[in-house]
Structure formats: structure tokens, C-alpha cells
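Reviewer 2 asked us to include a model.

Predict the structure of this chain.
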Amino acid sequence: EIRLSLVGSEMCIRDSYYTVRSKGSVLKVLKSKKKELARYIKRRKLDFKHAPEEAIVAVVRQYEQLNEIP
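Predicted model (C-alpha cells):
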């Protein structure tokens, strides 16, 4: 389970907190699906510089979808 606190750009995964502010930091935290998420970011043209909150939320949602059990 991933919990986001976008006020301080914090991401919580299994009771560990990570500060995420860039595409690289998000991919580092979600490294188990790094390749797939990098492709998703590129395909969707997510803008971490001008709209980081929206980009982070979109990437986390995609990560959760990739980890769903069919």
C-alpha cells in the first residue's frame, strides 16, 4: 500500500517515508516497476517540473495498477 502526502511531497510505502520531488526520485522509490513507469511517464508526457503533484499521483496510480493481482 502506498500513501501519499503531497504537502511535503512525501510518499509512504509500508511505513517507510520517502521524499519525492522529481521523476528520478519517484522511479527510485518505485524501482520494482521502473522500466514500465519510465515508459508510462514518457508516453503520457508527465511534467514533473511544472505540475509535480499531478505527475506523482499519476505515476503512483499506474504503479498500483501494475501491481494488481488479476
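The radius of gyration is 11 Å. The chain has a mean pLDDT of 86. We have added this to the supplementary material.
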